[in-house]
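Sample entry (508 residues):
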Amino acid sequence: MKPYVPAAAILLAAAVPALFAQAPALNGEPYIHDPSTIAFSDGKYFTFGTGGGGLMSEDGWTWRGGAQRPGGGVAPDVIKIGDRYYMAYARGGGGMSGGHASNVYVMWTKSLDPNSPDFKFNDETVVASSDGVEDADAIDPAFLLDPTTGRLWLSYGTYFGYIRMVELDPKTGKRVAGNQAVNVAIDMEATDLLYRDGWYYLLGTHGTCCDGANSTYNLRVGRSRNVLGPYIDHMGIPLLKGGGKLVAGASGRFVGLGHFGRLDLGDGVEKFSCHYEADLDRSSRSVLDIRPLLWKDGWPVGGDNFWGGTFEIQSERSGFALELAVDFVRMAGRGGGFGGGGRGGRSAAPGAAPAAPAPAAAPAPAPPAVQPIQSQRLYDVLQNWPAGNIDLRIGDYMMRPHQQWTITPVINAGGYPGSPYFKIQIADTDRTLAAAEGNEIVTVPHFTGAPEQLWRIDQLTDGTYRIMPKAVPNSTEPVALIAVGASTPTLARFDPKSEKGRWTFRKP
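Predicted structure, serialized as tokens:
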């Protein structure tokens, strides 16, 4: 398959970027509507959409068709419990030919890979219904396995009436006998549920769908201490009265964000899947995307995928910058300090006789005009750098060329969920950051595309970043860029509770 190469990537490859550029949606052919939460099975990522079928990916960055599910219908969701993948989807409803009469079905399989001998959907059963008259529409289901109780819940519904929740049996996927649906929200659809730090969050899509570039889908949220609500937004408005705090919406060339699905990658990295009703760079088609999920003041916030630029890479541990270990080159310009008659000047000794008056002198010449000083440039220092490998250190901010890094996505080098790999180079040079044997890091004179020169950059839930090499020579251990002390960078296991492996990107 020919990979999708966005215009932004072509520009970045042709020139040194100076600002954040908007990342494209996923690579390949990520065309889907109403995607399920992404699931990992048999070494691949899977998501399923309206109409049957879905997408699959080896790395979470490049996607293609090939996922399969029976039943057709709309807006499926998937969850893994034990050795089973439960699939929920709806047939009917949505205000289309079937009006609002609909059923939600659940079935299960032990593999999502159609080439696996364990791929077979079993025990399809109805778990929720709407008759077309009642104030509800049984479509758009989503699972939550409560980590505090082990109970399994399913939300469903659209703008036509209430969002409802029912309880399912996690051992069978069937509805718990006698369980009654509970109304939890209005004015949303395509809901999803998650639990974090004692709160249950109900996320739902507001706005209009299915109108391409004119769709207004946006993602909103409320939270509750009880899985069955009441769910309240940040302004105290219940979701049962139409409340909802904005999580993410339209951005740049992407219109109509909806169908949230949480993707917890561990070590403090959370992301979410969604679709855009229209990607204006892809004929306004509906596409899958994966974006960082951040948390601020106890609320989820949609982050933006990193897409390169020129930066100073700041250590959260010390506040200093990652830099080449090269000799310091002084800049031209007048020195600072204080004049003789100003602060710090010497006064006469106590008790000394007054000095004789000085003879009249000619007027002092006017001081030179204040002039701007040129920032240090690469060619001012480059001749002093060694030609071979150069080590790294972490140093005080000087806004100098040895602290400025250009980060560029590497097309056709693969990726990870939501992003491609990047190369990290001293700005305006080919000098490249690389992992070295023994979990060390160096810069090498030229970029070759070797795995140890490719970097994964994940935004953490607090907005900082984790930086990881794709590979370390003669090692299979996953490691990240770590500040051992205030001035020593290395590669080590990432600790999500420590600031040693957290970095931010500052524009120089």
